[in-house]
Specification:
The chain has 187 residues and is an all-alpha fold. The protein is 70% helix and 0% strand.
Length: 187
Amino acid sequence: MTAPRRRDATATREAILRAGVEAFTRFGYDGVGVRDIAQSAGVTAMLVNRYFGSKEGLFAEVAEVSMTERTVLTGDPATLARDVAAALVRRTQPDADSLDPFLLMLRSAPNPRAAEILRVGIEKHVERHVYDVVPGTRGTERAAIALSLIAGFWLMRKVIGSTALNEADEPALVATLEGLFRVLLDA
């Protein structure tokens, strides 16, 4: 007779959250259900709802976790423009990891409630990080424009696969982006 499996609420919650990140990033908010995520996590849909309240609650937690991770933005104001440009070019290479917060945003934004949750997460974590690093952007649209530049470049290079951007000399791409980010982010 095998011993019953020991329950571990923290591990279960983490498994559900990881499954949620993967599912929402790959399929978007409207493209996946609680049952799909539960199956991927090895639990029941009822358990997902017990931990997160609902699909929306799980998505809000996924957005929170995804937006707090620094994938492109750094913390040194002296090198921010260069660092962001270099990270953006590196993260959008055709063979780069495809489980990223940008795809979560892109694939979930068509749902109005998901878009609202994403907006709150972006403002709370991403824009606020820019404000903290470059206080001169606080109260201006410059941080949001910089994030729009990041999103547009990501879309064109990684998702659409722009031939010009994918065949461009990467150091030249970094230099061009650095110049644009300097205009937006230099204090």
